[in-house]
Design goal:
Helices cover about 60% and strands about 0% of the residues. It has two domains: about 35 residues; about 100 residues, no CATH class. It is mostly helical.
Length: about 140
């Protein structure tokens, strides 16, 4: 194995022009294909389109989840006794301060209390389609 690397080292030491051209060609090759990469912010395009994912895409499009910011409020000390009333008070204070400062300028709507039935429906949909979120589309095409 070492003979191969010694041969390459000695060859390129004697033929520096070939080495420079090979490096330049490599950069051009990689640069060309890197310029073809297009980034998407829509997570629904990551999921393959079939009958199993239609329900998720329907929910995703109707809720417009890509335009929302979700904040999770919790106590840093996980050993402390849970106090839901204190968390609710903190949440209400946060919403009040954000509404006071940014409501008309940056914030269209704040939803900080969710009906339990709606929440359970979202959890059910998420857990039902969890494997789809974890498996890349290429692997799904190979197994289909």
């Amino acid at each position: 194995m070492a003979k191969i690397f010694l041969f390459l080292y000695n060859f390129f030491k004697k033929h520096r022009i070939i080495f420079v051209l090979l490096i330049a060609a490599s950069f051009l090759f990689v640069g060309y294909y890197a310029s073809k990469i297009r980034l998407e912010e829509d997570i629904s395009k990551f999921i393959p389109q079939n009958q199993k994912t239609e329900k998720f895409n329907f929910v995703y499009r109707n809720l417009k989840l890509s335009d929302k910011l979700m904040v999770n409020i919790y106590f840093a000390d996980s050993n402390a006794k849970p106090d839901p009333e204190k968390l609710i008070a903190i949440s209400n204070d946060l919403v009040a301060s954000l509404t006071k400062k940014f409501k008309n300028e940056y914030i269209k709507e704040i939803t900080h209390q969710i009906v339990d039935d709606d929440l359970y429906g979202v959890y059910d949909s998420f857990y039902q389609y969890l494997p789809i979120f974890l498996i890349p589309p290429i692997i799904q095409k190979l197994t289909a």
